[in-house]
Amino acid sequence: MLAGEHPREMISAETMFTFIKFVCEKKENAAKRLLESNKFRIIVNANPNGRIQVEKGDYCKRSNLNDVDINRNWDYFFGKEITLFEENSGKSAFSEIETTFIRDAIKEFNAKLFLTMHSGTLALFHPYAYLTEEGRKFYIKLLIELKIILKINIF
Fold this sequence. Notes:
The chain is an alpha+beta fold.
């Protein structure tokens, strides 16, 4: 699970902290079930230097310190359909230290599902960026558990 690629989406990282707290406290049966049958690798803040810039007042910053949108610095569709400066994908796929770190962490963990957390002005988004068949089943199960945990309608 990944949050904080876009520094201005501060609520994404904060939501990830809330999820970690919920799971680690294990007060709810849903949290216990999640931990009994799953392993998580969580990167709470994928762009810490960009986050510092936002906290210093650059409230709309979307990129890292090299002005690269690390959400666009992957090899999948690298450089395609980029029209806005703030979506600069960089010199090449994985040219940025942040995406190289995330890529290597995912490979080392052997992830079945790669879930990213993003936010807008009125919503949180959780697109999956990679999914095996086993991961698809986990994703559906996770959404159902989150619906129960957060007592919200997500379908």
